[in-house]
């Protein structure tokens, strides 16, 4: 009877574990338990148990080896982190991997952040009308943007540019960026001050 129950349990647990891991791999900020449960369409208790199982698995408490990353609860949310033992290795790798050129998507995202800072990732995504999560991670890894502060109400991280960007652009201040083209529509056409139409 144990043999009949075990495959059924595996079929139920494996998809939830995979869904939770998939979400954890793409988030940039810790995700709360309730939000994670909603994202994977599972009860909070089941997601909590899955998270505990993943923590133990990544820590090598199961049958597998200890992983180079860990799952931590930080600031009321869950997120994958590189183990502290490997911080120097990862920093060296990221520093040595920055190619000379940025993709078009990275340049566009960087321009939005430079002109609109401080700005949240969702605001940048709204302006560009595409998901910018991976591009923001790339720009952070290259040291061109930085996390300025977290919004007190929503908890969203606000981003801004770094001195490294100024050095790459050969300017002393973000104020030296060229003005946005006067040909761009600012939405003010048809509005006169004090006149209601």
Would you kindly provide a written description of the structure presented here, covering whatever features stand out?
- There is one protein chain.
- The chain is of the alpha+beta class and 197 residues long.
- It is built from 8 helices and 5 strands; from the N terminus they run H-H-H-E-E-H-H-E-H-H-E-E-H.
- It has a 3-stranded antiparallel beta sheet. The protein has a two-stranded antiparallel ribbon with strand order 1-2.
- A hairpin with a 2-residue loop joins strand 1 (69-74) and strand 2.
- Helix 5 crosses helix 7.
- Mean pLDDT is 82; it is low at 5-13.
Count of helical segments? 8
Question: pLDDT average, as an integer?
Answer: 82
* Gross morphology: globular
Model regions low in confidence, pLDDT < 50 over at least 5 residues: 5-13
- Rg over alpha carbons: 22 Å
Give me the secondary-structure category: alpha+beta
Question: Count the strands?
Answer: 5
How much strand? 5-15%
Question: Can you list the strand order of the major beta sheet?
Answer: 3-5-4
For the report, how would you describe the main beta sheet? Answer: 3 strands, antiparallel
The helix/strand order is HHHEEHHEHHEEH
Termini Cα gap: 76 Å
Into which percent range does the helicity of residues fall? 40-55%
Give the helices and strands, then pairings.
Elements: H1 2-26, H2 33-40, H3 44-58, E1 69-74, E2 77-82, H4 87-96, H5 104-116, E3 119-120, H6 121-128, H7 133-141, E4 145-150, E5 157-161, H8 163-169
Antiparallel strand pairs: 1-2, 3-5, 4-5
Helix pairs in contact: 1-2, 1-3, 2-3, 5-6, 5-7
């Amino acid at each position: 009877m144990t043999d009949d129950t075990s495959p059924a349990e595996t079929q139920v647990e494996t998809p939830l574990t995979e869904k939770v891991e998939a979400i954890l791999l793409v988030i940039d900020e810790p995700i709360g338990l309730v939000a994670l449960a909603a994202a994977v369409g599972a009860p909070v208790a089941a997601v909590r148990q899955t998270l505990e199982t993943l923590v133990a698995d990544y820590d090598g408490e199961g049958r597998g080896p200890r992983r180079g990353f860990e799952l931590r609860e930080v600031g009321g949310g869950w997120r994958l982190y590189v183990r502290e033992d490997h911080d120097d290795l990862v920093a060296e790798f990221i520093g040595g991997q920055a190619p000379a050129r940025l993709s078009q998507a990275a340049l566009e995202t960087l321009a939005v952040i430079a002109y609109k800072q401080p700005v949240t990732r969702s605001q940048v995504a709204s302006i560009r009308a595409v998901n910018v999560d991976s591009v923001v991670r790339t720009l952070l890894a290259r040291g061109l943007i930085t996390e300025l502060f977290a919004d007190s109400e929503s908890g969203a991280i606000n981003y801004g540019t770094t001195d490294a960007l100024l050095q790459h652009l050969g300017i002393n201040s973000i104020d030296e960026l060229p003005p946005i083209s006067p040909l761009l529509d600012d939405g003010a056409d048809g509005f006169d001050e004090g006149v209601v139409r």
